[in-house]
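Tutorial handout. Part one gives the primary structure; part two gives the three-dimensional structure as tokens.
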Amino acid sequence: MIGRHIKLYIAMQSANLRSHMAYPLNFAIGVLSITFLGLSFILVSWVITQKVPVINGWGTYELIFMTSLWRTTHGIFIAFFVQSWFLDSLIRNGEFDRFLVRPLNPMFSFAAFNIQIYGFGDMLAGLIGLAVSMAHIPDWTFLKIAYLLVIVLSGAAIEWSLQMLIGCMVFWTLQGGAMRHILDQLLAQFTRYPLSIYNRISRFC
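Part two.
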């Protein structure tokens, strides 16, 4: 059963990707523009450390690594799970009903109905930042890289879970844009610096 759903998910997302690639130039411009935008956010970490070389024991490339790590996980979320952002409009317009009448699990059908090419730009920017920063951070081993992969996938799953939690509330509120924006900004800002610089309340949250 799981294998069948995996094959079906790949087939559906491949079809979604081919629809975006029907216009190759538009696809390339969209991905590259977001890649450069993502790299500009990562560059901010470098600019900050030119004035403040060490932030609570974290140097330039460690901060770049941290920012790039979030950019990569966020890119995975945007590429494959961003449809949770559109749940309120789907419900208000009555379009969510199509997932309820399909001969598939509604959650699975909803998760596979869209792919967002801009997420690939975020992922590319994050991977470039990770590659540059990891080259300046010593003592990498196979186990550490494998652990990093788990962290990346777990980060994307956590962001998706939080966004879906807001999405579930939309069934009652019919509007969740403000809460999604707040969550997106909190994740973007709090993942740019080491957790140790924040107070205990912020660490707990």
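Part three, for discussion. The chain has a mean pLDDT of 83. The radius of gyration is 19 Å.
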